[in-house]
Amino acid sequence: MYDMNNLRRLKTIEANASEGMKAFRAFDAAALADGAVPVKYKELMACAVAFTTQCPYCIEIHSKKARDAGASDRELAETVFVAAALRAGAALTHGTHAFPDRP
Q1: For residues 83 and 51, is the Cβ–Cβ distance under 8 A?
Q2: Residue 29 belongs to what domain range?
Q3: DSSP state for residue 35 in the 8-state scheme
Q4: What is the spatial distance between Cα 49 and Cα 14, in angstroms, rounded to a whole number?
Q5: What's the count of helices (H) and strands (E) in the chain, helices before strands?
Q6: Is the pTM of this model over 0.70?
Q7: Residue 55 in 3-state DSSP?
Q8: pLDDT tens-digit profile of 59-85?
Q9: Could you tell me how far CA 9 lies from the centroid of its own chain?
Q10: N or C: which end of the chain has fewer CB within 10 A?
Q11: Does residue 10 sit in the same domain as residue 49?
Q12: How much is the average pLDDT of 38-58?
């Protein structure tokens, strides 16, 4: 199912919802632009989110952009563990819902 060639189909979405696609692209560009948080860190954040959402398209795109922005193998590897810790932490904290308060 995953194939980077699928992204060519974004043109079909754009042709049928051009204003939405235009707005998304502007938002995406603004969110990932250099600012108070440098691009390299934004791309590493994008990688962490992609690892937790398990989006192969985002992993491929944002890991390349992170590298292009100067991220090292070590930084990407540590980002993997940040994502893993947050995902595991979510399972742990959601586990508290299995235990009702006791008087």
Answers
A1: yes
A2: 1-33
A3: S
A4: 24
A5: 5, 0
A6: yes
A7: coil
A8: 999 999 999 999 999 999 999 999 999
A9: 20
A10: C
A11: no
A12: 98
